[in-house]
Amino acid sequence: GDILSLGPNAGRILARWGLHDRLWAVCGHHPGLNLHNHLGELVRFQKSEQPMFGAYSYNGHRAEIHGILFEHALELGVNIRMGEEVAEYWEDDARGASGVTLMGGEELEADVVVAADGVRSFARKFVLNYQDRPKPSGYAVYRAWFDAAEQGVDKDPLTRHMVTDGDVFYGWIGQDVHMLTSSNLGGKTISWVITHKDDTGLLDTSSLPGKMEDVLKIVQGWDPRCAAILSKAPECVDWKLTVHDPLPTWISKSGRIILIGDAAHPFLPTSAQGASQAIEDGVTLAVLLQLAGKQNVPVALQAWEKIRYQRVRDSQVMGESTRDKWHQAKPEDKGEKLDMPRPAWLFAFDAEAHAYEVYDDIREEIEREGYSLPTLA
Ligand SMILES: Cc1cc2nc3c(=O)[nH]c(=O)nc-3n(C[C@H](O)[C@H](O)[C@H](O)COP(=O)(O)OP(=O)(O)OC[C@H]3O[C@@H](n4cnc5c(N)ncnc54)[C@H](O)[C@@H]3O)c2cc1C
């Protein structure tokens, strides 16, 4: 992967863990999005708000952000075993236990198993007996991240500003296409992503190398700055965007195995909320398990599903609506209506505080009325 954007809803949690300085040092700090129509006319400058709703966003390279989280987990004494593959999940209601069996045959038992095995989750089928049937969304993205100096970004008058002006963020929108590019670390690295129509019918199980001639075809007749920066990438990835129906539940039959993150609710990369929602999932779950205690794991998981189900869906839908707005914009459209949304319900949210606030009421409701599968508004 390449760029990872964490919204202030995740940023406030990471800052609370004391990670702000480390994240800030590896993240981009552009002043805002310069949005253009496909002919290169500036149609909107949307100022970057840092902090927003009292918290920072962090946009950086995925591996570096992962590295910081990984180090933090080790500092807390979390035992992380890399290179192990889960072959089976199991739960034993009578003993109040659950666990996994690794590929090598080793069994690990726990009070609760959290299956965070991503968009291609095998826990979905194994734990929930749910057959995911992803559908092509009709869109795909080409993405790249590269070193600016190595690729001569400073030598080309059409791209030089991306390294001489510090971190910058540019976008272009046209019929069924949008392209975003930013420079990071004071103009040292460049990332770009271009979302476009795709009728190959392929699914996101395939992340293919992209062909530069195909990428450049999309921006034929566009502002020449687009082809100039796209063509600097030494290579790019072609990622098909796939739609997944919401799962009916994220909890196993006995309530001791739970799916979180993309395993439970895959996000389109364009929503820029997949990782933030996965972090909210984890934080909420941690609070509920702490409040419920070891004896009440199933109730904690049920409360978690009730808290998360609608919120996750709302943030998934928001990502799709921004794409549609940009793809349907006319060249003469200008101004605030083209802004990326920054709704308070999404960004001002404090998942940790919310979980502490609502747990007792939800637990009482479950005890009173029994648990029923979540529904969407
Ligand atoms: C191209 C692309 C760009 C994106 N850009 C953004 C962005 O800018 N901002 C954003 O917020 N989100 C973005 N996303 C979405 C974001 O990456 C995901 O929402 C997020 O990574 C989900 O986290 P996760 O922990 O649930 O799953 P993942 O990050 O997918 O992690 C799942 C992990 O489980 C492991 N695993 C799988 N099966 C097993 C098994 N059987 N045993 C052991 N381990 C297993 C995998 O190896 C992997 O390490 C993007 C996604 C893509 C594909």
From TrEMBL:
UniProt domain FAD-binding: residue ranges: 54-125, 253-312
Matches recorded under InterPro entries: FAD-bd, FAD-dep_Monooxygenase_BioMet, FAD/NAD-bd_sf
Transmembrane region(s): none
Presence of keyword Nucleotidyltransferase: no
Molecular function as annotated in GO: FAD binding; monooxygenase activity
Keywords for the protein's UniProt record, in alphabetical order: FAD, Flavoprotein, Monooxygenase, Oxidoreductase
One family name in Pfam for this protein: FAD_binding_3
Keyword Lipid biosynthesis in annotation: no
PANTHER family with a match to the protein in the record: MONOOXYGENASE (PTHR13789), MONOOXYGENASE, PUTATIVE (AFU_ORTHOLOGUE AFUA_6G12060)-RELATED (PTHR13789:SF236)
Family, per entry: Belongs to the paxM FAD-dependent monooxygenase family.
Name used for this protein in its record: FAD/NAD(P)-binding domain-containing protein
